[in-house]
Amino acid sequence: MNLASLLVGAVQLALVVLGGPLLLGLMRVVRSRLEGRVGPPVSQPWRDIAKLARKQRTRPSESSWIFAVAPLVLVATAATVAVLAPLVTLAPPLASSTDFIAVIFVLLVGSVALALAALDTATAFGGMGASRALTIGALVEPALLVAVLALSMPLHSTNLIAIVANGSRHASTLLGPSHLLALCSFIVVILAESGRLPVDNPSTHLELTMIYEALILEYSGPDLAAVTLGESMRLAIWLGLFVNLVAPVGIAATAHPLALVVGLVALTLKVVVVGIVVAIFEVTTAKLRLFRLPELLAGGFILAVLGVVTGAVMR
Amino acid sequence: MSAFANSLASAAVVVTVGAVVVLWRHRLRSIVAALSVQGVALAATAALLGIHEHDRGLLAVAGLVLLVKAAVVPGLLARVVAANPGARESDPLVNVPASLVVAGLLTLGAFVAARPIVALVGGPTGRLVPLGLATVLIGFFAMVARRRAMSQVVGLLLVDNGIALVAFLVTSGVPVIVEFGSTLDVLFGVVVLRVLLARLSAAGFSDLDQLRSLHD
Amino acid sequence: MNLRHSLQLRHVDAGSCNGCEIEIGSVFGPVYDAERIGARLVASPRHADALLVTGPVTHNMASPLERTYLAMPEPRLVIALGDCARDCGVFSGGYAVAGAVADVVPVDLEIPGCPPHPDEIVSALRRFTNR
Amino acid sequence: MIVLALVAGLGVLATLTALVPRAVRVKLVAGLLGLVEIVGGATAIRVLATNHAIVGHTSSLVPFTGVRIDLTPLGALFTLTTAVVAIAATIHWVGYRRHAMSSVSLSSAFALFVTSLLLVPAAGDIVTFLVLWEVMALSSLVLVAHDHAKRDETRQAAWWYGAMTQGGAALITLGLVVLGGHAANPSFSAIAASASHLPAATRGAVFLVLLVGFGSKAGLVPAHVWLPRAHAEAPAPASALLSGAMVNLGIYGIVLARTLLGVGATWWWLVAGFFGVISALYGSLYAATSTDLKRLLAYSTSDNMGLVVIGLSASGLFAAHNAAASSLALIATLVLVTAHALYKSTLFLGAGSVQYATDERDLDRLGGLARTMPVTTAVIVVGALAVAALPPLNGFGAEWLVVQSLVHGLSGADPVTTVATAVFVAALALTGGLTIVAFVKAVGVGFLGRARSESAEHAREVPVSMRIAPAITAAACVALGVAPGLAITAISRASDAVAPNRSGLTATLSGFHLQALRSAVDPLALALGAVAAALVVAGLRRAGGPRTGAKLRVFEPWGSGRAVTSARMQYTATSFAEPLQRVFDDVLAPQHDLDVSHVLESRYYVERVAYASANDDIVERRLYRPVLALAAVLGVRARGLANGSVHRYLAYGFVVLVIALVVVS
Questions:
Q1: Helix or strand or coil: residue D69?
Q2: Cβ A176–B1 below 8 Å, yes or no?
């Protein structure tokens, strides 16, 4: 880990922190336009965060330190991943230990913290959200890890940088059916993990249909700002990883400033495109009932299994 | 990995995924659509093999497969569905998540079971045989696990498509005439089944388990 | 208070005839689209900057209204929407009515009308969002 | 040799010391036991540090064969793990004594149990092994049955445990005796040398017998039924030992079978892997749906042992084609075993503290303990995050290594192994997800929110020794999590004793590095990065807030405008697990019972609605109950044979004698 790679990590972190809420804003704008509305400005989530930061924090009387710590954990884990993951560049700090599974589990720490905090509020909604979010999380896990297994097959390594670098060097890997199947399964995983339609409706006001929103009903002020920021960072990270697994075009192979600029622009463009696609998909889809979700997730799982089988067959 | 190997594998994978989608979706329209996509992929497999081996006969078979399995047969079934466009496989005997897990296990099983064939044929074609075998197994399972008569017909066609895929991959095209014959057989079978289906639904049966009442 | 172009609203129906609710619905619909000025309805008073109250306050809703107000983080605003919220309107003196919104929680802004036109609601909200 | 004799001697002394008067008993026994544990642990550390086994033989003590000691690095790792867990359990015991744990029989059983646990891995021949194994089994049975006079559940647990453990021991004896008979020598080293001359079928049969025997000790499904009962009913220090040390010895036994028999055929490990997968999924599913804290922990033990066996199977399967992945899988397994010992004993000791403070094990009657029992809660949170395999705790490193071995094992694998590996990964993943559900539920419902019962509301933090004990193991979880390098040398030496390490695994103090396989992970860096980021965000949060007025306000929870005054408005453990229970309805087949009674005057008015749902162990219900019922029926039938006539009994004896003579001739 040298100074240059730390700098690169800082660039990635800054991009994810600044860009996460903007991505969320962009998706809301696309949604509004498709609904025939002008919609909020793209910067609206940032305006909300800035305002929330100047409001009062509230804490339910029954809660403990878990409630206070969870938003910090959520943002901190997302920030850690933002620094380490191959988003803008293939040379982030600690490149040799940027492991796919580690990335997944670090993000998982944030989800678990939020679920515990929701149970800590002693409200029915919090428990409901935690129960549903974790049930989905548990059912997503097989699809996710088997997809990772399929992605790791060409190199027999789960090092995320190595996987992305291999894709950028050998385009034929990217077009291999095993890789494509794993990525299809990855889409299901991302929709579920980041609480987008058809898994969860991020703009619902009905408590009884909520999944992820129900977790954070008790947060206010700076806490809510942190949670909003953390969630949007996670969305940006998932989409960023996805686009780099699909098409690692333009990703900076070194920490050279020019390459970094190219990488920055390329990543932004790719994530914007995918974000728009996801938003369009969301407008055209209805939310699935909670008990239909296992069907979707099992579908993701079997795509990943097919990916592994195809990968093994093609060897 | 050559472009040929990659695209051949992709086409074969789409055939298997088509079978999975039949288990995955509830709407009969989607199921028939999946069958059609599978037909296209099957034709693509044949066409790729034909191009690769400069075999005109195989290209002709590809054309026939495209016509029959991607257009005519799904078209016939789609007309049955059109009578009742919202028809769904709403309560299958084995629920969807469990079916999909079973499909996964069948695919893994096919991979193990196809070892001797893969060893015998080898090469970029022979190694894809497990995918065809998986399609056959999933098709059989769809017939067992689904209630609607339409799903059963589709299951049968999945089995047939799977066998066709294996045949293409193993022999790089059975003698053209055999393939012609079997494809036309399928067409004939579907026509008969289509008539039967229309009769059944006219008589008010859609769930095959209801046919048991005829026995009593 | 400068809300910097961001105004989260928690809506409480304190006993309204639902006329105002219909107008609120169209405020956030395609025609008037209050989201473009940075206003948004939220699911929890903890997330809200302003309480959007409709209807006269009935006896049953007086305590929930007050709790909702107290549950909001400071600084907080209350908007009384419609004539009933301002002075109980036609329900004034009804046996179920506890009083106007101002009798239960401190009101910062009143939007008159029965029901108020969506335009008026949007322009009232603009006074907070400065857009 | 001498030190091990010292351990045994002190252990026996501690057992006898239980006879001293009650006033000083616990302190004296605990002191002596502490000495036993420290000496045992130190011996194990010496073996691991020098990489030299302690070997010895004395012809006294046991007739014919004597006692043979052979503490290899592998055994030493298990002894060391046991020693750490036992130290914590003993400290906890000192505080726990109010709960009738200070009686003569229980004190001596506890001492004997700890001593035998420490010594089983040091056994160098069949007889020594089996004798120690039986001592361990019987002394733990006494502990499980501690409350048998008062509680029916305890009696049941003791019956199940006794029957299962003796059945397992019988199988182990059978398997080992076959091997020893062939080698004509009871020592393990002689058996290992001669077992390769056995016919393949015999070796396979012996492996299966040993797998089932040791598997029942490790709590593998379907031989797990004793586990949720025994672990739940035993007093906390004993549960910690059962789950943190004794089940490990079941795993030790399976590894021992591998060292004795060699890697063997593929099908061995497919069978083992099958049981591993079933145990992992079944255990985690029941853990996720249990509402009893200690049952939940027990099922989770079953699940973790399943994962361990998955790792062992992967190691066996990969041995033929990929030595690197095979040895990595073995190391990963041992890392997982030690990690499990630490976090599970933390959790059991913490659960014991909760039971001590509230007299409750039911999650739905706990809650709110984060404020009344902060230390215990913090300890439980660490244990729960570790068992959920979240970084930077030790469970994460273990699970990461297992996944790595599976990923690398795919390289060069034949279709059968590939399929097995894919199934292993899927099982591992689903298990991981379900474990998170289980432990978020355990912590969230059991410790956070509002107290759900009087006793939980008035809970007081437990005595200091009971706070220290789980804190020791929790600290070890954190330490080995962020600095896995501390233990990896010892663990790879232990695995070297079974199969040489070819994985190229090196561990710096802060992480695992697999140079040859281009994978690495660095929990310390992750933790430091996250903590730094969290501090920055905390600073920003502090800087934010309104210019005027209070920055933080404590207010009642939001109940949609209603005053939330009742703890019953919270989600319960049952409701928390309800979505999962519905998803896995076909597997769990829970029993629902809805009883609606109407008022006399009209059917349209309901007087009372009673709803009961039971989620009892389906293996027990569908597999064991019918068999037991059949046995009971046969027993009743057999009663006809015994009608009290002495002549008839003599006739039976005569017939048997005649048959025996015929058979012999």
A1: strand
A2: yes
